[in-house]
């Protein structure tokens, strides 16, 4: 199948926009490479002795030989969070598998892993977004010892996988294989969970009923099963060729999961510089890989957080993408998956219906993915139109199903849930924003209503509880951007806004904050850029201003006379309460230098990028 013309045009534009920055990145990458020689050969004897002093004698012998590849294990393991708890046993499995493949492996370092599900609506959420940058830096620290010839990255959730990949790309001369843990098994239905949350918000059930419902949903090891940022991460690693094919959604604690984990180490050894299939991750992840990532996000209805994370990942590889690219691709990429919050199913249902192998084959067949890309198992994405299985204990791959196991969850490109990807760019008098409409009913996609201004999500919830929001309105929640308070998710507002919408009111949200991968049926213009603290026009809105959010036409505007609008001063807010408590004082440096959301909301300063290049 020939490539879709829009896919080709967007890719070509990204290549042209990134020509200078990508070339500079590759020059640095190639200068760092020592192809055919192990990294540790650059170390002095004193350096090297320090690096393997604690290793068993048998491993020391191999490390002294200076010809076998040595693999880094970088892990986000902790046993508080369900998604990362399974990673406890992985290092031992990876070390055994590496040794059997003629390599060695060392645990190079751990990275922090916080959970937005735990910190949602709490002060700790203000550390969340910039934890991604700390994870990237922690990855760099782990790899800084020049002991490693390839790396295995163990991570799952929200900021962890983007942070690991940004860190990996800063060591782009090393091959990288990502090793997932998989989702927990299915608990209660997502609709049932959401209903109890709404009843609690209305005061109709108590905390005991709410806690019991949540415990039945989040009940064991593995990733949360709804299709939020964590599972969108796993989809991205699959469609970018950084996992072994079909590895994303295999449950933890199963024989197949262990077989895939061990095989990841063996493959990392094969693609190290000492092998015949040397695959440095910085060369492998190119403009086509990034476009494939965007397409995968759109086709599966993935997390809006990736409108920032993909930009930041691309930037780490010298590639410049912006929201125009997302918007143009969204217009032609069909929605093939209905998983909560865009449907009733969870990721286990999606995986059972055909999963990523089915999606990749359908998109390739429709000319909506680049097949000619690098992956950790070789050239060509067609290999990922397969699924793993065990044949008498031996790991093998077979073609993904040709028919969906459940067309209420997974459909073909010829018969999609919708003809577009459901992610749109909004622009106008209030700046630029993104909106996810795949779960928003058509009758709710255009809202014109007076603004009600809040500078704190808790103030809006208090107004809701007082009964002050029983009307048509658009909640403008500002001073929630990266520089103001670290851009927390505002998912805590979803039950209240959903209740008001169900009562027949026209409601929407406009914010320079985030709404997370769990954003759902209420229209939400999020990531508004520039943010209020940086002088963005969202700071000029006043209570009662008529705002028009039109997800069909892509307009986000305020119906105020141009002369009056130009004369208005920016609103001010006292943000001192964001500066301390729960570690927020330690993150002040990140807030002070953060880029705007469309540039990835990172604190990093890549020397080759200039602000004017982003919209070309």
What does the model show?
This protein is α/β, with parallel strands linked by helices and 616 residues long. It is 37% helix and 14% strand. The chain has 23 helices and 16 strands. The chain has an eight-stranded mixed sheet. Strand 15 (546-550) and strand 16 (555-558) form a beta hairpin. Helix 8 runs parallel beside helix 15 (306-316) and helix 11 (229-239) crosses helix 14 (287-300). The longest helix has 16 residues, at 128-143. The protein is globular and about 75 Å long. 56% of the residues are buried. The model has no long low-confidence stretch (mean pLDDT 92).
Set out the fold topology.
Layout: H1 5-17, H2 19-32, H3 45-52, H4 57-65, E1 70-75, H5 90-100, E2 104-110, H6 116-119, H7 128-143, E3 150-154, H8 160-170, E4 176-179, H9 190-201, H10 207-217, H11 229-239, H12 255-270, H13 281-284, H14 287-300, H15 306-316, H16 323-330, H17 347-353, H18 355-365, E5 374-375, E6 378-379, E7 386-391, E8 394-399, E9 423-428, E10 431-436, E11 446-454, H19 457-465, E12 473-477, H20 482-485, H21 494-502, E13 507-511, E14 524-529, E15 546-550, E16 555-558, H22 562-567, H23 588-593
Parallel strand pairs: 1-2, 1-3, 3-4, 11-12, 12-13, 13-14
Antiparallel strand pairs: 5-6, 7-8, 9-10, 10-14, 11-15, 15-16
